[in-house]
Amino acid sequence: MCGRYATTRTAVDLSRLFQAEDDTAGGLAPDYNLAPTDPAPIVRVSASRGGRVLSVARWGFLPPWADDPRTGFKMINARSETLASSRAFGPSFAAKRCIVPADGWYEWTRTPEGKQAYYMTHGDGLALAGLWTAGKFGLSCTIITTAAQGALASVHDRMPLLLAPADWAAWLAGPADADLLAPPGPELVSTVEIRPVGPAVGDVRNDGPGLTQRLVGPAEPAALF
């Protein structure tokens, strides 16, 4: 799963990277510990704008029929294997896919000494596959997960569905084909750094670049299994 991540690039940088119109209205701020229900940047296609826009959405999917915003707590992730047939996620997979820009995401694993946090990151940033919707609570989104690949499986059995730049256009505007949900290939997965970090990230009240700094000392995940 993906229950916490970092996204720190500015609206200007994200708009340029994804060739999207900035629709954030100054509502985007760096967040090194983004948690469910927090505002998150997403890139989507807007029919009224005639192209890609960078928006801010609540993380935690709220289907149009949801009458309680707390529903989103249970819908921060959508499993790639079942989302197409899901009453909640299926319509958005067909017509409202998005990219969730991230610097990296966090996962925890158990060691003989206790829980250890890891930060999966990439120097050029990551594009996570997501879905969005709009309703009486505004824009909301979810991050799609898939079976963990390569060395990432040593930390957790699930991972976000990563998108290579060559896949962005098809993901945002192509047909809702099952091939879109294929796990990322080894050429992309192998470039993701698995970085042990300190326990402070476990508290959602903590923020700042120190959360992503490499922790000296703990075993690398491959040595834990």
Supply the number of helical segments.
4
CATH superfamily: SOS response associated peptidase-like
Shape: globular
Distance between the termini: 19 Å
Going by CATH, the architecture would be Alpha-Beta Complex
Q: Largest sheet, described in full? A: 11 strands, mixed
Q: How would you spell out the order of helices and strands?
A: EHEEEEEHEEEEHHE
* Rg (C-alpha, Å): 17 Å
Secondary structure class reads mainly beta
CATH top-level class: Alpha Beta
**Overall pLDDT, averaged?**
93
- Residue share in β-strands: 35-45%
Number of E strands: 11
| Sequence stretches where pLDDT stays below 50 over 5 or more residues | none
CATH topology: hypothetical protein yedk fold
The amount of helix comes to 10-25%
Overview of the molecule:
- This protein is mainly beta.
- It has one domain (5-107, 125-192): Alpha-Beta Complex (hypothetical protein yedk fold).
- It has helices spanning 11-18, 90-95, 168-173, 186-189, and strands spanning 5-7, 21-22, 31-34, 39-46, 51-59, 77-79, 97-111, 114-135, 138-147, 158-160, 193-197.
- Strands 1, 2, 3, 4, 5, 6, 7, 8, 9, 10 and 11 form an 11-stranded mixed beta sheet that branches.
- A hairpin with a 2-residue loop joins strand 8 and strand 9.
- The chain is globular, with a radius of gyration of 17 Å.
- The model has no long low-confidence stretch (mean pLDDT 93).
